[in-house]
Amino acid sequence: MARVVPLPEESIVQPVETDQKKMKIMIGGVYGLLALLGIGTGYLLSQKIPIAQKPGFINTGKVVGTTDSKTFRDSAEGTIEKDGIEGEGTHKLIREGGPSQTAYLTSSLINLDDYVGKKVKVYGETFAAEKVSWLMDVGKIELLE
User: Fold this and answer.
1) CATH of the domain at 125
2) Using one digit for the tens of pLDDT, what is the confidence trace for 78-104?
3) For residues 84 and 86, what is the distance between their CA atoms, to the nearest angstrom?
């Protein structure tokens, strides 16, 4: 007859809950590391080539901006001033014809502060606005003076 050997009081098998908890922590750590690596890589790549040197971007001193004339097909002439109105636009383009002709501007490509007080022709894409009559994302600026 077979003899039964009693197991020691300390069990060799650990509770499943502890393993699952460790696994969740490890998976969360891996995802967190991947997110940080992705953000870091994106940041480094964006810093490597300044926008002004990227393909499709021109900077002749008189004309600055993108060569994408399909997206930025609207244009207007006037003098750029700082500040939009009620949160719409970071700058405004003062045009002949009075306040009703003012275009409010924003740009993700060009630092509009560099052109404050200058007479320019802007090329951009018109967006719907709630508080202003004309809101434009500027893609290219041509100095007129």
Assistant:
1) 2.40.50
2) 999 998 777 788 898 988 888 888 888
3) 7
Determine, yes or no, domain membership for 7.
Answer: no
CB–CB of 62/121 below 8 Å? no
> Token digits for 21?
């908890």
Distance (Å, whole) CA 140 – CA 110: 8
Residue 116, pLDDT score = 92
**Locus of tokens 């207007």:** 76
Residue 38, phi then psi, degrees to nearest 5: -65, -45
The answer on pLDDT for 11 being more than 70 is no
Q: What percent of the chain has pLDDT over 70?
A: 81
Q: Which of 128, 113, 38, 37 is nearest to 82 (CA)?
A: 113
Q: How many independent structural domains does the chain possess?
A: 2
